[in-house]
Every structure is written in C-alpha cells, then in structure tokens.
Design a protein that fits this description.
This protein is about 30% helix and about 30% strand. By secondary structure, the protein is of the alpha/beta class. The protein has a 5-stranded parallel beta sheet, with helices on both faces. Strands 2-1-4-5 form a 4-stranded antiparallel beta sheet, with helices on one face.
Length: about 200
Amino acid sequence: MIIQVSQLTKRYNYQIIFKNIDYTFEAGKTYAVLGPNGSGKSTLLKVLSGFLTPSKGSVSYHNQHTNIENSEVYQQVNYAAPYIQLIEDFTLEELLQFHFTFRKLLPSINLNEFKSILQLKKVKGKYLNEYSSGMKQRVKIALALLTDSRIVLLDEPLTNLDDAGTAWYNYLIEHFLGNRLIIVASNRLDEYAFCGERLRILDYK
C-alpha cells in the first residue's frame, strides 16, 4: 500500500493549514507527523484518511500496481484519534459485535484474545459511557491496531493514558504493527519513538 500526495494544500477560508506537500507514504514503514498543537497534524491525517478533501493538490492510493478509488479507501484505513467517538450506548461486547460485522480481526488473534489484550475485565458488561477516558482510549487504540487493515492512522495515541496505558500501547506497537503503513501525528516522543520517518508540518507553511 502506498499513499502518494502531490502539491497537497489545505486551507480554511484564508488560513493556510499546510501547502505544497509532496510526499510518499509506503507500507512497511512508520511515519511521524510532527508539529506543535494547532499546526495542522490532525488536518493532514483527516485528508490522508479521505475524511477531508484537499483545497489543492491530490492524494492517491495504490496497492502494488492497482489504484484504489478514494471512495473505497475507508475499507483500508484504521483511525484512532481523541475526536473520533465510540458508540457509548453500547457495551464493549456490543461494540465489538457491531464493529466486526463489517471489519476483520488481524489473522493472528481471535475475539477472546482481543478482549484479553484490552485488559478491561473489571468493566465487563458496563456501557462505554461508564468507562473512564483512559479506558475509552484503550478501546480506540485496540480497534485501530488489532483490526485488519493496510493503513493505520494514530493521532495523539497516548491521550488520557497513564503509565500503565503507555506500557500497554508500546506492547501493541511491538507485537501488532506487521507490514502495514503506520502514520502517527504527535508532538510527544513516547508516542512516535518507533517511527523511522519524520514529516514536520511546519516545513509546509
């Protein structure tokens, strides 16, 4: 899987968020999008995911020698971010049943192993609106990293996670990245230390 961006520009009214990004994101590599708060990192991830359209330039997706239509990209993307909400009227079991009706787990694990990896037994049977912010973040990260996909986008993944949650995140990164295309938007080294490639959003202002 490859994401190719050319002259990528996003603006809101007269404010340039970023401009003229020429970049290639390739499967099997890990990328960090870096910059201070409000610099446009999240906006870039939204454009790469297909959630936002660029103001100028293009984003194209390729699997080997085959182009993937923009309308089909959502099937290839897992995305975790603080602004993406869970269905909080569901229990965890209901959420997973719903989610995995449309998506598949990584081939290396089953649903019971997924639940065990979450380490949330003490809230079994509770609705997600009763979860703490850290528990909800675990669910988001687990869904992003343990659902089968070719692209994983993580925006500030350690938001609301304590030291134990950070260690848990690092465990998932170590064991479940595979050969996918991983992009992390962050300004914290402990979120993106594993990333081999760095894109600094302030270079495109």
